[in-house]
């Protein structure tokens, strides 16, 4: 079992930046591939970014490429999502997730069914 707590969300103007953190406890972070998802009001939960266990590979949805960066510090049991050039359409609750079994292609990494543990979410609001 692993517990995860997201932080770093908030209200920011369009064009601004935020850095989300996801700190885990219970099991060593290096065991898991990690992902970030987001859910806007009235919409489904969508994939944002993922990173493999050792950080060698990262995956992004097209709409955030070049603006968001996922990274991890296994020694601190923390995964980050740096978000730059934020847009109003990035407004959502952001969730981190952990996957026990690795996979090596985008479709797998982007599937919410691949992930075994989820955090409670942190709100990101981007004003225009």
Describe the protein in words:
With 128 residues, this protein is mainly beta. Helices cover 3% and strands 48% of the residues. The protein has one helix and eleven strands; from the N terminus they run βββββββββαββ. The strands form two sheets. Strands 2, 4, 5, 6, 9, 10 and 11 form a seven-stranded mixed sheet that branches. A hairpin with a 6-residue loop joins β5 and β6 (58-60). The longest helix has 4 residues, at 106-109.
Major pleated sheet: 7 strands, mixed
Overall, the morphology is globular
Q: Poorly predicted ranges (pLDDT <50, ≥5 residues)? A: none
- Mean pLDDT, as a whole number? 95
- Tally of strands: 11
How many separate helices?
A: 1
Give the terminus-to-terminus CA distance: 40 Å
Helix content: under 10%
SSE order, one letter for each helix or strand: EEEEEEEEEHEE
Provide the structure class.
mainly beta
What share of residues are in beta strands?
over 45%
Radius of gyration: 13 Å
Descriptive terms for the model:
4-stranded antiparallel sheet; single chain; mainly beta; 1 helix
Describe the structure concisely:
This protein is mainly beta and 128 residues long.
Topology:
Layout: E1 3-7, E2 10-13, E3 18-25, E4 33-39, E5 45-51, E6 58-60, E7 68-73, E8 78-83, E9 92-99, H1 106-109, E10 117-118, E11 122-127
């Amino acid at each position: 079992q692993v517990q995860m707590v997201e932080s770093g969300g908030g209200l920011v103007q369009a064009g601004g930046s935020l850095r989300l953190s996801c700190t885990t406890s219970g099991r060593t972070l290096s065991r898991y591939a990690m992902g970030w998802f987001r859910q806007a009001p009235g919409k489904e939960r969508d994939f944002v970014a993922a990173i493999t266990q050792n950080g060698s590979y990262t995956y992004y949805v097209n709409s955030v490429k070049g603006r968001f960066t996922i990274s991890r510090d296994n020694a601190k049991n923390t995964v980050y999502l740096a978000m730059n050039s934020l847009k109003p359409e990035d407004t959502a609750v952001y969730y981190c997730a952990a996957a026990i079994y690795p996979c090596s292609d985008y479709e797998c990494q982007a599937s919410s069914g691949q992930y075994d543990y989820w955090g409670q979410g942190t709100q990101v609001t981007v004003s225009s």
